[in-house]
């Protein structure tokens, strides 16, 4: 007679030896190891304030014959806490996916049930093979103002919990980051870097649902990013790079009309083209650079303080500088 | 549909689509601003749920990607003609209700009404290019709204503007589909097969 028994952490557990009388002589084992008689009350096994380490196979044997009278698998765990649920459309207008997890483990098996309601209609969320805690919904309607309501319920032997998300079609649209970002120097142009990228492959129809892009770049040695927003195209030439300095560059994407920006792409590094290095000492290099009439560093054309708020969402290309950056730039030259 | 396949017609269609997409974008942006103004001036809660409003064309559509070019244009045109009438009604009610008190809201409504009219005309041009010609407007007027109290009228106005904002997004998408090279529009099963 063998089964599984689930108990909460901290509970007091009493195990009976099957149909044996209370006063029968029995021996209990836990994972094959005899349990001390101090844990027994007659033939009952008493476990007080159980913890996770007490999970295991418990067996009860009749005293003299050593017949196995009862066996149970004790699983100590907790009821589920409120699950964390996230829904996102990275393949608009095809549909969206929802994924979830528990904030803390329960140590016992859990089952998840998800329901998706759109107005009065119940929609199917097809479970993904991988990852496991994820399912996807196909949009049956587009351009709807009616919200979607997604409820996730997690249940285990000790209890259940649920959470609900309500959102409209466009609020959850967030593309994957752009792919294949490449940055190259431009021959004979010490201040330029050519950046190109591709639409994320998960975005099904970039022609009808074009993406716009946000590029950020900075020299490795500075903390402040510069930003450029691009309404179309999958390339851009940076024209104000510091000569000879290695840059880090990233791109993000967003649907032209709806939703939010993607995460930043994988970062790429590039250094603008420089002339063939001459064999000089460091000191001589500084002397050479500062006295050269065509210095490779020139003050930026404008030192206008740009309103940070104007960067995001503007249809025009905007480059932001701060006065502090200009001062830092002069310092950079002498590093 | 034969005339729409000529190179000049295709160029004209693409040009009209590009301009239409820009119009729709500007219209959407202005409707979103108008929504903010409307909510504020009418003392409404921006997150208020509004049940489907009678007589307001719903932007939601099933199998959107399977629609033919002509279907798209006809549905868009019917919608914007309806919005033209609805916004005119709202403007009239707003003037009666507030008189001179809220000229800003009135001006914003009038500006959007103008854009809606312009967009409807633009759609008619596109339909003429499809050798279809726009349908007549007889019977296209929405029924007069039921006699509503002030608050119900405000909520109805909110519903109208929200749906218009959705339409503006949809219209840009529809026009991009239309602007795609041939397979989408001219390989439609047959010109007679429209709703």
Automatic annotation (TrEMBL), chain A:
KW Hydrolase (keyword) present: no
Cellular location(s): Cell membrane
Any Pfam family hit: fn3
Annotated protein name in UniProt: Ciliary neurotrophic factor receptor subunit alpha
Broad class of the protein's primary localization: membrane
A GO-annotated cellular component: external side of plasma membrane
Transmembrane segments: 310-333
Domain of life: Eukaryota
Molecular function, one GO term: ciliary neurotrophic factor receptor activity
Span of domain Fibronectin type-III: 177-277
BP term (GO), one: positive regulation of cell population proliferation
Species this chain originates from: Sula dactylatra
Ig-like domain sequence ranges: 10-60
Membrane topology: Lipid-anchor; GPI-anchor
Keyword set, alphabetical order: Cell membrane, Disulfide bond, Glycoprotein, GPI-anchor, Immunoglobulin domain, Lipoprotein, Membrane, Receptor, Repeat, Signal, Transmembrane, Transmembrane helix
InterPro entries from the UniProt entry: FN3_dom (IPR003961), FN3_sf (IPR036116), Hematopoietin_rcpt_L_F3_CS (IPR003530), Ig-like_dom (IPR007110), Ig-like_dom_sf (IPR036179), Ig-like_fold (IPR013783), Ig_sub2 (IPR003598), Type-I_Cytokine_Rcpt (IPR050379)
Family: Belongs to the type I cytokine receptor family. Type 3 subfamily.
Gene: Cntfr
Automatic annotation (TrEMBL), chain B:
GO cellular component terms, semicolon-separated: axon; cytoplasm; extracellular space
Annotated spans, Disordered: 176-195
GO biological process: astrocyte activation; ciliary neurotrophic factor-mediated signaling pathway; negative regulation of neuron apoptotic process; positive regulation of axon regeneration
Pfam families named in the record: CNTF (PF01110)
Location(s), subcellular: Cytoplasm
Function: CNTF is a survival factor for various neuronal cell types. Seems to prevent the degeneration of motor axons after axotomy.
Keyword presence, Iron-sulfur: no
Provenance organism: Sula dactylatra
Name of encoding gene: Cntf
Gene3D superfamilies referenced in this protein's UniProt entry, alphabetically: 1.20.1250.10
Entry keyword set: Cytoplasm, Developmental protein, Differentiation, Growth factor, Neurogenesis
Protein name per UniProt: Ciliary neurotrophic factor
Domain of life the protein comes from: Eukaryota
InterPro entries: 4_helix_cytokine-like_core (IPR009079), Ciliary_neurotrophic_fac_CNTF (IPR000151)
Family assignment from sequence similarity: Belongs to the CNTF family.
Molecular function GO terms recorded: ciliary neurotrophic factor receptor binding; cytokine activity; growth factor activity
Residue ranges with Low complexity bias: 181-195
């Amino acid at each position: 007679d063998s089964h599984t028994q689930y108990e909460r952490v901290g509970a007091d557990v009493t195990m009976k030896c099957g149909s044996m009388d209370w006063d029968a002589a029995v021996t209990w084992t836990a994972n094959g190891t005899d349990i001390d008689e101090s844990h027994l009350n007659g033939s009952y096994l008493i476990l007080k304030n159980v913890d996770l380490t007490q999970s295991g196979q418990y067996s009860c044997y009749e005293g003299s014959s050593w017949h196995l009278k009862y066996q149970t698998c004790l699983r100590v765990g907790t009821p589920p806490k409120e699950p964390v649920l996230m829904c996102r459309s990275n393949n608009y207008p095809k549909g969206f996916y929802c994924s979830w997890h528990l904030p803390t483990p329960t140590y016992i098996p859990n089952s998840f049930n998800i329901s998706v309601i759109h107005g009065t209609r119940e929609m199917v969320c097809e479970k993904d093979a991988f990852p496991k805690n994820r399912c996807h919904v196909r949009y049956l309607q587009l351009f709807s103002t009616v919200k979607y309501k997604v409820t996730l319920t997690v249940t285990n032997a000790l209890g259940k919990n649920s959470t609900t998300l309500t959102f409209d079609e466009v609020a959850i649209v967030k593309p994957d980051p752009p792919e294949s970002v490449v940055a190259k120097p431009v021959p004979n142009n010490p201040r330029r870097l050519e950046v190109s990228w591709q639409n994320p492959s998960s975005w099904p129809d970039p022609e009808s649902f074009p993406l716009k892009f946000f590029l950020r770049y900075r020299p490795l040695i500075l903390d402040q990013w510069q930003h450029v927003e691009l309404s179309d195209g999958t390339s851009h030439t940076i024209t104000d790079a510091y000569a000879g300095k290695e840059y880090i560059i990233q791109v993000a994407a967003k649907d032209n009309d709806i939703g939010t920006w993607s995460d930043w792409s994988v970062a790429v590094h590039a250094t603008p083209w420089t002339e063939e290095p001459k064999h000089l000492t460091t000191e001589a290099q500084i002397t050479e650079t500062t006295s050269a009439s065509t210095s490779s560093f020139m003050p930026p054309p404008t030192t206008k303080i740009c309103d940070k708020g104007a960067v995001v969402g503007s249809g025009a290309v905007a480059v932001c500088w701060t006065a502090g950056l200009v001062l830092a730039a002069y310092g950079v030259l002498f590093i | 549909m034969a005339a729409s396949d000529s190179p000049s017609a295709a160029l004209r269609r693409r040009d009209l689509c590009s301009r239409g997409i820009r119009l729709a974008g500007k219209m959407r942006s202005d409707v979103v601003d108008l929504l903010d103004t409307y909510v504020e001036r009418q003392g409404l809660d921006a997150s208020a749920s509004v049940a489907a409003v009678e007589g307001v064309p719903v932007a939601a559509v099933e199998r959107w990607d399977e629609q033919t070019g002509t279907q798209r244009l006809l549905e868009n045109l019917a919608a914007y003609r309806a919005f033209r009438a609805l916004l005119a009604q709202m403007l009239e009610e707003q003037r009666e209700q507030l008189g001179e008190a809220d000229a800003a809201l009135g001006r914003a409504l009038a500006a959007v009404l103008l854009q809606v009219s312009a967009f409807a005309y633009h759609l008619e041009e596109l339909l003429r290019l499809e050798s279809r010609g726009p349908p007549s407007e007889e019977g296209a007027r929405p029924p007069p709204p039921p006699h509503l109290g002030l608050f119900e009228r405000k909520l109805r106005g909110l519903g109208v503007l929200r749906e218009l904002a959705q339409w503006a997004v949809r219209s840009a998408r529809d026009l991009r589909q239309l602007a795609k090279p041939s397979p989408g529009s001219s390989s439609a099963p047959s010109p007679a097969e429209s709703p």
